[in-house]
Amino acid sequence: MNNHFLILCFLRYATLLCQFNNSVKKGSTKEVFLASRAIGLLAITLGAGSSSHEIMEESHPQLCRVLQAWSDASKMISALDCLAVITFVGATDLAETELSLKAMWDVIHPKSGSNVGTVRKPKPPVLAAAISAWTFLLTTIGSWRINTDSWKEPIAFLSTLLEAEDRAVRMAAGEALALCFELNLLDVSSCEDGDANTGRTGGSKNKLFLDMQALKAKISGLASNLSAEAGGKGADKKNLTDQKDLFQRILDFVKYGECPEESIKIAGKRDVLRVSSWSELIQLNFLKRFLGKGFLKHVKENGLLQDIFDIKVDTTETLSSTDKKIFRSEEEKERALKLNKERRLAQARKNAAMLVE
Ligand SMILES: *[C@@H]1O[C@H](CO)[C@@H](O)[C@H](O)[C@H]1NC(C)=O
Ligand SMILES: *[C@@H]1O[C@H](CO)[C@@H](O)[C@H](O)[C@H]1NC(C)=O
Ligand SMILES: *[C@@H]1O[C@H](CO)[C@@H](O)[C@H](O)[C@H]1NC(C)=O
After folding, report:
1. Centre of ligand 2 from the C-alpha of residue 239, in Å
2. Nearest-CA residue for atom 4 of ligand 3
3. Which terminal Cβ of the chain has fewer Cβ within 10 Å, N or C?
4. Distance between CA 316 and CA 305 in Å, rounded?
5. Of all protein residues, whose CA lies closest to atom 5 belonging to ligand 3?
6. How far is the CA of 35 from the centre of ligand 2 (A)?
7. Which residues are CB-neighbours of 315 under 8 A, at least 6 positions away?
8. CB atoms within 10 A of CB 312
9. Ligand 1 mean position to 22 CA, how many Å?
10. 3-state class (DSSP) for residue 197
11. Which residue's CA is the nearest one to ligand 2's atom 14?
12. Whole-number percent of the chain with pLDDT over 70
């Protein structure tokens, strides 16, 4: 790509972003919905890099304003989804991700503001969307250093939401907690030694250990009940089945360490997207929902999605057994990887070109 092309590309997306940003600021509910989707799609199409980092920096303030203004439910849901996507793609460090996590958490569990006694309560659909967005972003912090004591409060609060009236809220909270288990956020060593880094005494660490053990037991008990619920008044059958399946999976994981698995055919029999952890499953479900009908197309053609789900072309299935042996040789594997990478790079270029058309 030459510089001229890069500058052209940059100007085009900056102009688009500016317009979308304005729509999020001043638009009707429908306009905010469309504009925030467009911003998210722009980030997904550009992929990880300086452009999507800039998209995040530029639209973050306006999206947070929508959340802080406690606008109508639909606007808030649009803003939450968009904030999740642009941070997922564009954030380059933990601090940036934490900023978005905090904006989302302020919707999940609002603190009383300056006016005492005016604690706001999110409507169930907003609450479920906020938990989903928060969980989706939490999948990205796995590789960063995590301070365990700071998770006690959010995990305790999420566990109370397993008893919420609204099924969507209970399910979102269940997924969030499953991820917390997978990220080992509830695991505190029970050892009595003080922590050299924080100067904490062994006693408070032991208390944290006990608190977390109690939380684990509480969550398991609630998940067990939710996986066996008989269905109350007016319960939607399909929804009830979804809830029971989800909590059965959560129990299987918490009790037996069995990871959730899912696979999606991408093209014919060969290309299959497989997930085998809560992180991946949560990413898959969120992106599937956000991209809607476009999901398969992105998975087939967008290098970002292929990187996220580590999609490899499963050529072995259609080869003869001799070919398979050859294919399995290290040399061939390396060549396949290289070809994959080249294909992805070519696609990134194509995506960028699509934007300037
Ligand atoms: C988007 O709006 C926010 C707040 O109104 C502003 O700070 C930011 O500069 C705007 N970004 C663009 C690209 O227009
Ligand atoms: C419950 O079902 C309705 C329609 O049948 C659907 O719109 C809604 O999203 C479902 N809720 C959950 C939590 O699956
Ligand atoms: C699960 O349901 C049983 C029977 O309704 C109840 O006694 C128990 O307290 C519930 N467990 C939790 C953790 O709520």
Report:
1. 6
2. 225
3. C
4. 22
5. 225
6. 25
7. 270, 327, 336
8. 14
9. 8
10. coil
11. 239
12. 74
Average pLDDT over residues 332-347: 57
DSSP secondary structure of 240-303: HHHHHHHHHHHHHHHHH-PPP-EEEEEETTTEEEEE-SHHHHHHHHHHHHHHGGGHHHHHHH-H
- Which of 162, 226, 239 maximizes ligand 2 atoms within 8 Å of its Cβ, making it the mutation to test the pocket? 239
Residue nearest to atom 5 of ligand 1 (CA): 62
For the CA of 160, the nearest ligand: 3
Å from CA of 218 to ligand 3 middle: 10
CA-to-CA dists, residue 273 to 240, 267, 269, 294, angstroms: 27, 10, 11, 15
The two three-digit tokens of residue 238, written as one number = 């399909």
For ligand 2, residues with CB inside 6 Å are 167-168, 171, 236, 238-239, 242
| 251, two tokens | 């129990």
What residues contact 107, with CB distance under 8 A and at least 6 apart? 67, 76, 80, 122, 126, 127, 130
Write out pLDDT tens, residues 188-225: 765 544 444 555 556 777 888 888 899 999 999 999 99
Q: At 187, is the secondary structure helix, strand, or coil?
A: coil
Instruction: Name, of 190-194, 207-211, 264-268, 316-320, the range with top average pLDDT.
Output: 207-211
pLDDT at 291: 96
Residue identifier of the C-alpha nearest atom 7 of ligand 3: 225
- Supply the residue whose CA is at minimum distance from atom 2 of ligand 1: 62
Report the C-alpha gap between 193 and 199 in whole angstroms. Answer: 10
User: What angle do the packed helices 278-291 and 124-138 form, to 10 degrees?
Assistant: 120
Q: What is the CA radius of gyration of the chain?
A: 22
Of 170 and 192, which is predicted with more confidence? 170
